[in-house]
Amino acid sequence: MQLYRNLQEITRPFHRPIVTIGNFDGVHLGHQLLFSEVLVKARRSGGTAVAITFDPHPLKVLRPEGIRLISSVEQKIELIRLAGIDALVIIPFDRQFAQTTAPDFVEQILCHTIGVQELVIGYDYAFGRGREGNIAFLQQQGQDKGFPVTVVEAHYEDNLPVSSTRIRQLVMDGQMQEVRRLLGRCYHIRGEVQRGRQRGRGLGFPTANLHISEEDLCPKKGVYVTQVVCGGKMYGSISNIGHNPTFGENELVAETHIFDFNADIYGQPIRLNLLRHLRGEIKFASAEELSAQISKDVEIARLVLADAARERLLTCEEAADRQY
Predict the structure, then answer these.
(1) Does 245 sit behind a cis peptide bond, omega within 30 degrees of 0 on the bond before it?
(2) What is the DSSP track for 180-196?
(3) I want to staple 164 with a disulfide (CB 3.0 to 4.6 A). Which of 25, 33, 193, 229 is the partner?
(4) DSSP conformational letter for 279
(5) What are 13-45's pLDDT values in tens digits?
(6) Catalytic residue among 9, 255, 281, 318
(7) What is the structure's pLDDT at 247?
(8) Which of the four pLDDT bands, split at 50, 70 and 90, describes residue 291?
(9) Rounded to an integer, what distance in angstroms lies between the CA atom of residue 24 and that of residue 173?
(10) Are 238 and 256 contacting, i.e. CB atoms less than 8 angstroms apart?
(11) d(CA 88, CA 50)
(12) Strands 233-242 and 118-122
C-alpha cells in the first residue's frame, strides 16, 4: 500500500482512482464494507483503490475533550493495509484546514489532487466547514463534475448500526465479546513493556506492564482474559487494567501475567488482545488473598482460552471446506 502523509507528497493524480473518505476509527465491519466496495470497483475498472483519512481525528481538534479513539493512526494504517487498499492519503487536520469549504475540498483535493473517478461513501458521511459536504451535496457534485457517487448503507448487528461510537461505549463497558463481533477482531492495546514494582513476581505471578494514558480510550477496569503477541508469537495471559487498589497505586496500568513464559521482554513492544472481562478491580485485605484470587482467575482464563482456540480451529476447518 502506498502511504501519503500529506497532500504535497502526491505529485500527480492517481490512475483511475476509486475513492472513499472517512475517519475510519477502529476500522470496524462497516468500514470494511466500504473498503470492499472500493476494491471491487477498482479491480473491475483497472483503477486504484484510494482511502482518504485525517490525522488527528477532526474531533480531537474541534472538541478535544469529546472523543477517545479506538485505534491510533499507526493501527489504522496497518488495518487499512490489511483491507487491501492500494493507497492511503492522510490529511493533517488542524483548525485552518477545518475552514476548508466542501466545494473547495471537492475541486482542489478530490478532483485536482486525487483525480477522483468514482466516490464511495458511508451512509452518514459529511465533511467540510459546518459539515456542508453531505451526501446530497456530493451526489450533486458528482453529477456536475462527472464522477459517480455510491452510498454504502449501514451494516447492522442486533438491529443497530455498527459505529465507532457504539464500539467505544462497549469498550468502556468491558463488553469485549461484543466489541470483537463489531470490529471483526479483538480489541487490543499496544505498547512497550515497562518495569513495575515487581509485586507480581512476589505473588508468584510475574507481570508485563503497559502504561495507559487516562486520555486514551480505556476499557472498563478489572481483570481480563487476554492474549499477548510478542516476537511474532501469541501467548495466553490474564491482565488487570486499573490502579492496583490493594497496594494503593494511582497510575493506570495494564499488568499482564503471561502463561508458560519466562523471557525478559522489558522495553519490547507487545500487543495485548482483550478477550473477556472476568471481574472488576477489588481491594484485597492482604497479598495472600490477592494471590489466591489470581489463581482462580488463571484457571478460568485457561478455560476461556481453550474455548477460543477450539473456535479458531473450527473456523479454519470451515474455511478450508469452503475452498474444496
Answers:
(1) no
(2) HHHHTS-EEEEEE-B--
(3) 25
(4) E
(5) 999 999 999 999 999 999 999 999 999 999 999
(6) 255
(7) 58
(8) confident
(9) 21
(10) yes
(11) 6
(12) unpaired
Active site residue 255: yes
CA–CA distance, 211 with 218 (Å, rounded to integer): 11
Q: What does the alpha-carbon distance between residue 49 and residue 12 come to, in Å, rounded to a whole number?
A: 15
Three cell numbers, residue 200? 507480581
Provide the whole-model pTM. 0.89
Q: CB neighbours of 76 closer than 8 A, spacing ≥ 6?
A: 24, 25, 27, 53
Cα–Cα nearest to 119, from 15, 13, 20, 14? 20
Contacts of 302 (CB under 8 A, 6+ apart): 236, 259
Q: What is the distance between the alpha carbons of residues 34 and 66, in angstroms, rounded to a whole number? A: 26
Is the CB of residue 287 less than 8 Å from the CB of residue 203? yes
Residue 191's CB: how many other CB atoms inside 10 A?
Answer: 16
Choose among 280, 168, 180: nearest CA to 218.
Answer: 168
In the block, residue with C-alpha cell 458528482: 142
Instruction: Check: CB of residue 225 under 8 Å from CB of residue 258.
Output: no
Cell output for 141: 457534485
Residue 257: all three cell numbers together? 501475567
Distance CA 246, CA 243 (A): 9
